[in-house]
Amino acid sequence: MKSLAAVAIAAVAALPTWTPQTTGVRSTLRGVSAASDQVAWASGSGSTVLHTTDGGATWTRVEVTTDRVDFRDVDAINERTAYLLSIGKGEASRIYKTTDAGATWTAQFTNHDPNVFVDAMTFWDEAHGLVIGDSIDGQFCLFQTADAGATWTRVPPQSLPPALPNEGAFAASGTNIAVFGTHAWIGTGASTTARVLHTPDRGRTWTVASTPLASGNSSGIFSVAFRDAQHGVIVGGDFAKEAEAVDNLAVTADGGATWTLVKDHALSGFRSVVAYQPGAPTTLVAVGPQGADWSTDDGHSWTPIPGPGFHTFSFSPTGIVGWGAGGMGRVGELRIGNR
Q1: I need a surface site. Which of 91, 94, 331, 334 has the fewest CB within 10 A?
Q2: How far apart are CA 172 and CA 287, in angstroms?
Q3: Is residue 198 part of a domain?
Q4: CA angle 93-156-137, nearest 5°?
């Protein structure tokens, strides 16, 4: 039998650890996506796009457009292909794509509707993607592509449940949409109830479920993660009260039809992103501007991670490494001892 000292040493060794990395920018970074253990992207304010091909030892700034936009989301499909999303009303909402590791970028979508404000995107694969925007006149605003972004088409509002007053998605980390198989889940907030939209068939049909997360003008669901078609986690809180963790974590075991609030051993503050660790099915990391937490039991209990906080986070496909990105151009590498 192991001694108590040996068990304690092993537990300390398994704690996730952050390693700061140098980016050379001071922009607010809210998008990050890892294509591999070596290749990752980060994006943010002032048209900032960063790229690493050496595991973060060096980050290179990439010019996508001479216009000043806010790149709130980036999704890496593989080491050469990535999508970028900028936010804002009217033509500030755009989507760009590269297929040559950032050497060139194609403007795939530029919004011309002054009422549209996009928030986040995700992809089932390179061809099939989904974008969520704020609701307009009681209707959700979603766009889809089925041809690798060559065309983006608004999802017919009649195929979606009606939106609550002021209901929308927060443009905070690019992770309030999750996909698994042909499913997608979208977390909402800023209204009287935080809800989860769900499609089982890549956007053809939709349902919506209420959740127990606190919701209001600056609160609701900020991030959604699923490890399979049944088991998922939502996190959030009030971004105006980053140190508080009031009713900001819930789990589901039925594909998002019902959600159970987690109160005991829960998160230690507002969290803008949650992610399952690939290769460790019940391990999760939740990150916010003031800190981070991790769980090894599918989100039912959490332990604070020593170190800084970030706006967004992404594991590499292997789960060996992850990157957090945040204010003042900060990027940190996270490694968990279970891999």
Answers
A1: 91
A2: 12
A3: yes
A4: 65
pLDDT at 6: 35
Tell me, what's the pLDDT at 338?
A: 72
CA–CA separation, 166 and 257 (whole Å):
23
| Residue 168 near residue 135 (C-beta atoms within 8 A) | yes
Tally of CB atoms within 10 A around 165: 9
CB-based contact 78:92 (threshold 8 Å)? no
| Contact status, residue 303 vs residue 335, Cβ threshold 8 Å | no
Residue 11 included in any domain:
no
Q: How many residues does the chain have?
A: 339
Number of domains in the chain: 1
Q: To the nearest whole number, what is the mean pLDDT of the chain?
A: 95
Backbone phi, psi, residue 158, to 5°? -70, -15
Q: Which two tokens stand for residue 301?
A: 């209990």
Say if residues 285 and 34 touch (Cβ distance below 8 Å): no
Q: Which tokens hold the place of 250?
A: 């819930």
Domain interval for residue 57: 23-335
CATH code, domain carrying 325: 2.130.10.10
109 φ, ψ (degrees, to nearest 5): -145, 130
For 170-183, b/e burial (b = at least 16 CB within 10 A) is: bbbbbbbbbbbeeb
Contact (CB, 8 A) for 235 and 245: no
Contact, 32 vs 42, CB < 8 A?
yes
Neighbours of 156 (CB within 10 A): 11
Q: Structure tokens of 116?
A: 């549209």
Please check whether residue 228 lies inside any domain of the structure.
yes
Provide the terminal-to-terminal Cα distance of the chain, rounded to the nearest Å. Answer: 24
Give residue-wise pLDDT tens across range 255-280: 999 999 999 999 999 999 999 999 99
Amino acid identity of residue 333, one-letter, is: E
Of 264, 333, 330, nearest to 303 by C-alpha is 264
